[in-house]
Design brief:
Helix content: 10-25%
Largest sheet: 7 strands, antiparallel
CATH topology of the largest domain: PH-domain like
Radius of gyration: 24 Å
Order of helices and strands: EEEHEEEEHHEEEEEEEHEE
Shape: elongated
């Protein structure tokens, strides 16, 4: 578990080729790996001071990059390029050959490493994570009194459970919560929250996660919860703010509406716990 997580892989001054006039302009580039705040990307700033304070930032998308390589020295010295799947490319000019090689190495590692394909998810082959990569998300576990760790990690939602893995070592499973043991769950404002029951390894308690994928996580958990209970799941919610639901329907008996979070209860496939009701009084003759 990485508490003091740093998503910056490399940063420094690089000259970028302008698409309009074809001139190379000096900018401060920051290469970031995928995290709970977003996918792998290059952030462009006017200078190092602007990067320090996060002003005048423009993102350079790395989605669709198929190759990163050096340009031949007879074309341009100390240059490298990122080639996209749509046959476009973006050229960069470093201060030296060594610096250009270092940028290419770091970009390739972020984009094409088997530990992080496309810089977004861990490799299911090398990490031992289950199912497909679509159900694995970068999240930040918020501090909880029930756990002695928090910070950046990987969440995987399977048909029956929610798993947490160490983001630096995806083979290390941190904790698992069975979906059928969740009392309620929800998402709002970039935060996914659920309440675990007593049968979970953590015991009962609230657990929160910040992520760019809260809506997807909620939809996945909600669909799986209905499947476990053998119920017909309602349509998945759109990516925008979900509509409020009333408690009038019997299928929504575990749902809770609030101003800060949107919850959908995990339907229990087993009988509810608790003491049985006393028998009704006998009729007097």
């Amino acid at each position: 578990m990485t508490t003091n997580f740093n998503d910056i892989v490399k940063q420094g001054y690089v000259r970028l080729k302008s698409g309009k006039v074809g001139l190379f302009k000096k900018k401060w580039l920051v290469l970031k790996k995928a995290s709970s705040t977003g996918p792998s990307r290059l952030e462009r700033y006017e200078d190092e001071t602007s990067a320090k304070y996060g002003v005048n930032k423009k993102d350079i998308s790395l989605g669709g990059v198929e190759d990163v390589s050096r340009l031949p020295s007879d074309i341009r010295k100390c240059a490298f390029a990122a080639r996209y799947s749509d046959n476009t490319s973006r050229q960069f000019l470093a201060d030296s050959d060594i610096e250009a090689d270092h940028w290419v190495s770091k970009l390739r590692h972020v984009l094409f490493s088997r530990c992080s394909p496309s810089g977004n998810e861990p490799d299911v082959v090398t990490s031992g994570l289950e199912l497909d990569l679509k159900n694995i998300y970068h999240v930040c576990l918020l501090p909880s009194t029930k756990l002695d760790f928090h910070g950046e990690c990987l969440m995987q939602v399977t048909c029956e459970s929610i798993h947490l893995f160490d983001c630096d070592d995806p083979t290390k499973r941190l904790i698992t919560w069975p979906i059928r043991s969740l009392r309620r769950y929800g998402q709002d404002h970039g935060k996914f929250t659920f309440e675990a029951g007593r049968s979970c390894d953590t015991g009962e308690g609230m657990f929160g996660f910040s992520s760019q994928h809260c809506q997807k996580i909620y939809n996945q958990v909600n669909d799986n919860a209905h499947a476990i209970a053998g119920l017909s799941a309602p349509p998945s919610l759109p990516a925008k703010a979900p509509p409020k639901r009333s408690l009038s329907s019997s299928s929504d008996r575990h749902s809770i509406n609030s101003n800060s979070a949107y919850y959908g209860g995990a339907y229990q496939a087993r009988p509810p716990r608790g003491r049985p009701l006393p028998p009704p009084p006998a009729d007097k003759e």
